[in-house]
Design a protein that fits this description.
Length: 113
């Protein structure tokens, strides 16, 4: 098993496709592969149903994935209840990927707009 430092070094050497909202993985995935992209930045926030739909397409196109859950519920970083709810949402997304996505290699938390 690679250390976190080794994983980061490997990731830094790869081309990352930043898929934006509005693009379907089935359209952008093959095009990105054609131009040498190896990793996709999964754009579906905390919507696990959309992640579930996209994961097989990214895998079919041979991409590793950076997953981007969002801390939506923590609009106020000093509100303990908001922060607790936000982390619970992020935990669901990460747990889903840990159990269902063998190609998830990193997580980047989004916060704010």
């Amino acid at each position: 098993m690679l250390s976190k430092a080794e994983q980061l070094k490997n990731l830094q050497q790869k081309q990352i496709l930043v898929a934006m909202w509005g693009w379907e993985p089935g359209e952008i995935g093959p095009a990105g592969k054609k131009y040498g992209y190896e990793v996709v930045n999964q754009p579906q926030n905390n919507e696990i149903d959309k992640h579930a739909k996209d994961i097989p397409v990214w895998i079919e196109n041979d991409y590793d994935m950076i997953v981007r859950p969002h801390l939506y519920w923590a609009r106020d970083p000093f509100d303990a209840e908001q922060v607790k709810k936000a982390y619970a949402e992020v935990e669901k997304v990460i747990r889903y990927h840990e159990e269902n996505n063998p190609r998830a290699i990193a997580y980047v938390l989004q916060w704010g707009m």
